[in-house]
Amino acid sequence: MDQDRERAHRAWRQAERIKRLSDGLLRLGPLRLGVDGVVAWAPGAGTLYSAGAAGLLIYEALQAGASPKTVARMAAYLLADTGASSVPFVGWAIDTLFPAHLMAAKHLLETALEWQAAGGDAEWAALADELAGLALDRFIDPETGVLQEFFDAEWRPITGEAGLVEPGHHFEWAWLLERWGVSRGDTRARSAARKLFELGKRGVDTEREVAVNALWDDLSVRDATARLWPQTEYLKAALILGEEGDALMACRGLARYLDVPTRGAWRDKMRPDGSFVDEPAPASSFYHIMVALQELFGTARAAG
């Protein structure tokens, strides 16, 4: 088991290195430019880079014990990506403007719920139902209640590095499933939301009053750095579940990120010692802050 875990860890570390090179080698304001986006301008270079990266990823998947179906699916995706990289301008546009996306289902569910609340067509409600069902049936471990992060092509949780547990994602899905569960009268979803919240709290550092970035699958701390966005999700989940003490703690923790010399900016990363990394404020945090404030103001209005 330990050997399997180490092989999975190595495979994921290699994939993460390739992703960082491909999607974030250079940062130009809000845009990110990776190696494949840069070399795509040189004839043949983009294809060579994509083919090499694809080969390395498939090799690591085989070393980690991936199933033949999963490797075949990977090969098909990577072949398509390599082919796109060989097309002038098209390959550059794809490689430059469309980096990898995670937790797409979460954003889709949130969008569907918002459209439904705004009086959207029945298709939005159907999409929300489908995504909530996917979360309950596939994303959440039926035995532990832990939110799985990575899956193979057959929707089986990947072991090893996929033991990654992110408190912020647990809080996000707790908030979403509680919203959906209340609107549908679904007790299973609401119970899952409560469990996700409690598991997410295993990643809350009560001394700093912040949620850390990541835990291992045994819920021990994996990354004690605390980014801003998990604090907003902690606050949202605590508010919707009526956990006043946690909501107050989340507010105090979040307030530290907003205590900056430049009004309207924020900190992003808190070190384990409580100090902050001195860096530009990422614009992506604005969405998280605004939705957390909406939940806070809505709770305040409902309380009178």
Automatic annotation (TrEMBL):
<protein>
    <recommendedName>
        <fullName>AGE family epimerase/isomerase</fullName>
    </recommendedName>
</protein>
<dbReference type="Pfam" id="PF07221">
    <property type="entry name" value="GlcNAc_2-epim"/>
</dbReference>
<dbReference type="InterPro" id="IPR012341">
    <property type="entry name" value="6hp_glycosidase-like_sf"/>
</dbReference>
<dbReference type="InterPro" id="IPR008928">
    <property type="entry name" value="6-hairpin_glycosidase_sf"/>
</dbReference>
<comment type="similarity">
    <text>Belongs to the N-acylglucosamine 2-epimerase family.</text>
</comment>
<dbReference type="GO" id="GO:0005975">
    <property type="term" value="P:carbohydrate metabolic process"/>
</dbReference>
<dbReference type="GO" id="GO:0016853">
    <property type="term" value="F:isomerase activity"/>
</dbReference>
<dbReference type="InterPro" id="IPR010819">
    <property type="entry name" value="AGE/CE"/>
</dbReference>
<keyword id="KW-0413">Isomerase</keyword>
